[in-house]
Amino acid sequence: MKKYLKKLHSVILFILFLLFNTTLSFSQEKIDRPVYQLENENLQTIPHSYFQYLEGADHTIPFKELKSGKWTNNMKTTQSFYDGYWIKIAVYNNTKDEVMGIHHNFNFEKKIIYENNLGFKIFNFLDSEQKDYKYKDENRIWFDYKIRMPIGEVTEIYSYFRSQPLDRVNSRKGGLDKISIGTWKEIEFAENFRTSRYLITIPVFLFFAIYFLMFYLVSRDKNYLWISILLFVFSFQGVAFSSSSYFGYRFNYMYGPMGLALVSAVVIQFFRNLLLLNQKYQKLDKIFLWTIRAYLFLIIIYFFDSLQYPGGEIYKNLIKYPYPKYGVGTIPIFIASIPVVIASLTSVVISGIMWRNGDKASGYLIISFLIPVVGALSQLPRFLAPDIFNESYVIERFVVSIPGFALLFIPATIGLALAQRSNDTKQVFLDKQIELNESLEKRVQQRTYELTKANQTITESINSAKAIQNAILPEIDAKVCGFKEFEYVWEPRDIVGGDFYWSGQKEDWTSLIVADCTGHGIPGAFMTLVSSTLLGRISYLKDLSKPDQILSHLDELLEETLRYKEGGDTSFGLDCGIICFSQKHNLLRYAGAKTNLYQKIDEEVIEIKGDKKSLGYEMKEHPIEFKVTELDTSQHSSFFIFSDGITDQVGGKKKLMYGKKRVIAHIKEAVDVQSAVSNIVADINQYQAGHKRRDDLTLFGFAV
């Protein structure tokens, strides 16, 4: 019995094998061309050898008639590119996923039908002008459609193509009827990757456009303006291209030629400025200038040409608007591109010449030219190994995107070129400024020698304004002066400044003078030289116990020295405070010209005001009287005097001046002179933060 059961079991298995084989053969017999095998989940491009074509039928043909139509292995007439045609492919799903997706190249008026054991389903192309249009739903993303392909079965796919005028050149090359199939997850990834290109490139270009625009507003360097305009145009072009269905295709067609002309004009203008053609190559600069004017005129031509564009009608009536008549055609785009290409190549040559001559900015520009070349070279693998890219759509999209992502580096390299050019320009200016300063130094040395022979040794050794100023500032010995505590800070805004101090001793009296001369930098420094020299003369002639007489005599000598009587420049002068102190007499006298003295007794700060008039600036009747304040120093107290560079410094969030209240607060809180001075300086540096130093900074503190 067991023997017969084994034989029966074998017969049953043999019958099942025949039935399975017959079914598969039946399935294969229905397909009269090769069946494409989906072996993995990657998005794969179907070779045209698996296509069959049906001509002479539009998208309204019933499905039964479509199936029974006369299918051929090749296109028989080019008219089908105008009138539309169907293709048919058979795909065997040998993967582990039945939720697949079909991807089409950019093409309008298409219709998709697929059929398998689950039945058949139709996808009609959705017009973007429909009110309920959505680029994405549960079964579609743009031109990608979700289909169900049972595992281990064959699915028939039918697709209708009607090539439009914008796409006919590609369609003649077999570009429009490109179909790729893979898992729906792969489709979603590919579409997200495509979208990410715009989400990355457009914001990056906009960022650099705004960045360079800010640089232009600050520096007024027109190189930054031109590159900013160029990046704004590129950004807008990317938005228009990626959203042409929203803007309308008539707008997209108009913007394309006009955008090209505008970009060409801006590019050539950028080359003119960056390469300094108006300075180095005047004839070439004139040619570039006339080319720019031609492109600006071309923009007007393209604008009026675009008004003749038929809009959406051209996409619906291909008989009335066949390919040879497509386009405005007044000046074809490829002809309009020739001047900017020639100008760009010429700029490359000029950049190379200038780079060899030591111009670093031109070197960065050459790098920006090489970036598109490198991007183009990255496409060679697509032609050398096409099978790899046919197997993986993701890899293909990644490689195709390399030139686009490479373009992101161009704004950076151009930014380096602009920065280098700006530095070169500043260096030229500095060289001229140094030359001017050296000339001024020689003139001032001559005048100083004539004004005072007492400083002949010093003035003859002047090599720089800094050396001069350091030479005239005295070393103050606190013990010699009779000060119990002494601390000071002297910080010019620039290398040299208009603030200075002077000290002298005569008999039982010590004089300490803090002055703020006109201006800062080199002009202020030379004014300090003049003033310091005059104070030296006064110290020999006058009593150092009377600060009012010192002020009056200094004012008179300033007018004489600066030759106000002879119609000289009356824009020079100074503010100062004079302290005359005698340890022997326990007495301090103060007189000031727009400068105040601050006395601290215990925790109280008293402001000792000077007169509200400056020294110099204008002719006055002499002698001039100044107010003198006498203070008894037998009781311990400290004194502080400072220039307006401290109080007038702008800082903080509101960009307000530092003010005298902050200074007084620090004086009150400090335990000694040294801490008061250091706290004030630290606080003003913190308050200033990123703001520019407005003036020289001078602060003196001492205790008696």
List the helices and strands and how they pair.
Elements (H helix, E strand, L loop, with lengths): L1 H29 L5 E3 L5 E2 L6 E4 L7 H5 L11 H5 L1 E9 L5 E6 L6 E6 L2 E6 L11 E2 L2 E2 L2 E5 L5 E8 L6 H5 L6 E5 H36 L2 H21 L1 H4 L1 H26 L2 H4 L1 H25 L6 H4 L16 H24 L3 H18 L2 H5 L1 H6 L1 H14 L2 H43 L4 H5 L4 H8 L5 H4 L3 E7 L7 E8 L2 E9 L3 H21 L5 H15 L11 E10 L4 E7 L3 E5 L2 E5 L6 E2 L12 E4 L5 E5 L1 H4 L2 E2 L4 E2 L2 H10 L3 H16 L8 E7 L1
Parallel strand pairs: 1-4
Antiparallel strand pairs: 2-12, 3-4, 4-11, 5-10, 5-12, 6-7, 6-11, 8-9, 9-10, 13-25, 14-15, 15-16, 16-17, 16-20, 17-21, 18-19, 18-22, 22-25, 23-24
Helix pairs in contact: 5-6, 5-16, 6-8, 6-17, 8-10, 8-12, 12-13, 13-16, 13-17, 19-21, 21-22, 24-25
What's this, in brief?
With 704 residues, the protein is an alpha+beta fold. The protein is built from 25 helices and 25 strands.
List keywords for this structure.
Jelly Rolls; 704 residues; 25 helices; alpha+beta; 25 strands; disordered N terminus; 6-stranded antiparallel beta sheet
